[in-house]
Amino acid sequence: MKDEEMPLMIDADAHVIESESTWGYMLESERQFKPQLVRPADGEGSVDYQLIDGRLIPWTNIGKDTPQAAREMTDLSVRLKHMDELGVDLQVIYPTVFIFPCTRRPEVDLALCRSYNRWMADVVSQAPDRFRWVVVPPLLSMERVFEELKFGRENGACGVYLRGLEGERGLADRYFFPLYEEAARLDLPICVHSANGSIAVHDFFIDEPGFCKFKLAVVGAFHSLIFDGVPQRFPRLKIGIIEVGAQWLPYAIHDLARRFARRGKELGRRVLRDNRIYVACQTDDDLAYILEYAGEENLVIGSDYGHADNASELAALKRLKDKGELRAQAIDKILRSNPARLYGLSL
User: Fold this and answer.
1) CA distance linking residue 50 with residue 39, whole number of Å
2) Is 247 buried (19+), middle (13-18) or exposed (0-12) by CB count in 10 A?
3) DSSP secondary structure letter of residue 158
4) Main-chain dihedrals φ then ψ at residue 300, nearest 5 degrees
5) Which of 34, 65, 94, 95 is the most buried (most CB within 10 A)?
6) pTM beyond 0.85
7) Angle of helix 249-262 relative to helix 287-294, nearest 10 degrees?
8) Where are the domains of the chain?
9) At the topology level of CATH, where does 10-343 sit?
10) For 179-210, what is each residue's pLDDT tens digit?
């Protein structure tokens, strides 16, 4: 950690790469659902997979620029040393395997979520001043969601993980209203991460690089949540839009404004502030332009630590600060006070 007089830097989107130990918290009756790492039989090729309930999940988005013990969080001293080198004081941890739709069966979904949540709680408890995490709800068993949110809230979780689509539902579907009500009561934001929980939509875009099946699903969720008035229905609910950049914001807001006008309504000038929405930006976004739509109070930034896709930028926080394209007060908000407000962190 830096000296106390130095501003904190909060990585609003870091990842863990799940390993065998992640699934060690399953009940004996659930062990049959444990993911299995699958490698080519001839030892050739570069693609490994996780086999989960008959589905092959490509295990390729692994950030080899991070030490294995760090990205798998098997040795926190290694990760903490790397964080210190990067100037990062606190990471909010997101999963990897749940970026993909893993199963249609509620019992498998519940086993995976429960084990992941308990494992992550134990990991983070070793360094609670440096790590927080987002709890993964078993959305195929809504009656079990509340206990997972409560467990997460009591064990260091600072958000609820959601994908742009969940099952065959959009996030404005009334099915999720009990989750939103409970998340708001517990002061846990819903964190809509670049991911897709719909097997049908994911598999339709199986061969495209991720823009359609992951990122556009989240942009669509942002649009539908606002259009259908979910933030107004749950006035204490905070929403994070994570790992899709912020370059799309002006387009989405323009579209919403036109649709609101056709209904005789006004969207308002500060869409993110009015709806308690926080968007994770990237250092190569046109931030001066985006701030005209987002304002300074509702942008955060993450490194995508542990991953190796086009959103990954290990030194993102330091680069934002060093580029000096924004005024110092705006940078400090993006690095510190905004993520603290989103995740309910005490500074």
Assistant:
1) 9
2) middle
3) E
4) -130, 180
5) 94
6) yes
7) 30
8) 10-343
9) TIM Barrel (3.20.20)
10) 999 999 999 999 999 999 999 999 999 999 99
